[in-house]
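In this supplementary section we document a worked example of the pipeline. Step one takes a protein sequence of length 201 as its only input; no multiple sequence alignment statistics are reported here. Step two produces a three-dimensional model, which step three serialises into structure tokens for compact storage. The input and output of this example are shown verbatim.
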Amino acid sequence: MGLTTDTLKAAAPRLALSAASAEAELNALDGQLGDGDLGITVSAGWKEVAKDAAAMPDDVGMAFLAAAKAFQRVSSSSYGTLTATALMAAAKRTKGHTDVPWSEVPALVAAARDAMMERGKGTLGDKSVLDALDAVARAVDGMDDPATMREAALAATATAMDEFRGKPNKLGRARMFAEKSVGMDDPGMLAFQRILAGLSG
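The serialised model returned by step three reads:
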């Protein structure tokens, strides 16, 4: 059995819990480089996805699309839009399937990365969530075991954050605080790490 709608249904409340737990931390970091509402955006988005998860259809692609719509409904910020864009990219690749092989997940991550780059006009190296997604896509390439991929993804995200912490932000509102951002984690990357951690255990 690969990735199914039941997988997404089980993951949604865990992601929502992780997002809620990280809300204050993300707001504080984002407040130094942006609007200070990233935690609210992420928490509200995943809470809405979890609330609607039970009604997700068996078609994995349509389930991803439902998640994208739920997230976008309550999180219209740029980060919320990019998250919805990532989910829609996954939806496009899995539409019509009720069981997606785990070996296809790396391609879903890569598709999400590329869609977010196109929508947000960002590039790799800007010190953003795109760099974390790229690190994960490369780290899990060729894998087909969910537990192994999860651990590899967490390790790759941590490494990416270490790599970019000493660099300036070049994307979004944070780019206006480029020098101040040196030595700080990118809020979007931190949000991704905290949400990803919710898949562990």
